Amino acid sequence: MAAEPVFPYEIIFHILSFLDYPEHGHDPLYRCSLVNWQLNRAASKLLYESVTFHRTKQLNLMTLDLKDDGLPDQRSPWTSALLPHNSPFVKHLQVSGVLNMRHPPKNRLPEALQTAIKTFINLSSVRFTPDQCYEDTFTEALKLLCECPSLRSVHLGGSWLDEKRAPILTELKGLQKVTIISPSRAVLDLFPRLLGQLSDELVELHLLDNCGSITPGVLRAFLPSLQGIRSFSLGLSYSITDDDLFDAVNQLPCLEDLELFYYYQQRSPITAPTLPRLRSFAVTLKEHPTSPQMLESLSKWIRKFVSSSSIEQLLIREERWFLDHKVLNFDSLVYHLTAKHSSTLRVLNMQHMFISVKAQKALFAKCKELEVLCYTSGKTSLSQFKNLAHGLPKLHSVALYTEHVGKLLGSNVTDEGATEILRSAPSLRTVIIDGWSWQGHWTTDDAGDVKLEAKQYHRSHSRYPVYWKRRMLF
Description:
Distance between the termini: 47 Å
Number of strands: 16
Pfam families: F-box-like (PF12937)
Structural class: alpha/beta
Strand order of the largest sheet: 1-2-3-4-5-6-7-8-9-10-11-12-13-14-15-16
Radius of gyration: 25 Å
Strand content: 15-25%
Number of helices: 15
InterPro entries: F-box-like_dom_sf, F-box_dom, LRR_dom_sf
Protein name: F-box domain-containing protein
Low-confidence stretches: 460-474
């Protein structure tokens, strides 16, 4: 008689889910899958939930590899995911990067995609965002998705989505989330029809990056089909003024999550949109404000969007890092948040925005619900944080950046210094200082006492070490 398992499957699956993070890789879950049948079942569900095929750019673009058939490596998860005992676990499929440009039959990727979609019977989301590919790589795969009853989300982008293939989108059914990168006019012309037939199910629409084809008329054409939308994103379109934008979002009564591209306009609308359900607002800046007037204009623009809501997450980033910019205080927005949203604000990520010591004190004194915090300050930022952080009982992740202090402060912080910062707030477990990152770990000393200590685990070569949007930061 087989022995009863020590733990139920649900508990084992929950425990193993803590290993399912990008920094861990697949190795810990793979090792767990070799222990016994029960661990294999739980680990396989996590290992094969998402299948990704991404090819990086070839170093020598002048050399054509005649042996390249466009398929993933035989040792990749793609191959084992197609096995009958693994394929039901696959829910998310992603294909991106520099794909094979040759025509079939020398390029076997189009055929492999069709096989994968037929095999992954529980597929709920797909992402086809190649940097380059054979023009018909996704054509037949997209047609098969129209017959996929479990499909709920599509994320599409690239030059392949042209006048010939865009009409296939109108055959997709049951979608709850649609994301299009740099939508072309061919796609936008079909939007009223597509969104009209998805209006009962669709809750998220994201139009990202270059949205120059979206004019005020195009925007107004598909707004009537978005009355039930809860999450909306719009990339950069210089033809869309703030008046057009404010009027558009005002017609989305169920909006909870909003992401917009901001560029400076001298004329600001008098009235503010009314968004009582808004909980998360993300802003991408085309350029860093270079004058007090530009900074105050940005602050007013953000305040108008969040003034009527109980905002929980506010995220401000820049399209690219501007090295030579003036240090201007962004205190006016901080004071607005402390006055109007102190009881609801949980996530504040404004990495490139400088706030003064006075504004820091107001933020730490009033916004007691903060869990994630990211901002830029001066040379006393570390000492100020250690003195003030004890008043934030829920803060678990913080990123501090410094401006015009000579050598970056993060390079001088030791593990002992980071440990002192971690212990300054009761729940703090992750600290990032100018790109240097530390994670809190529980350890025991020779006497058996348990202590929280910091261990450096990541040095970012980018100015964007924090995760951005639709996932918990850090």
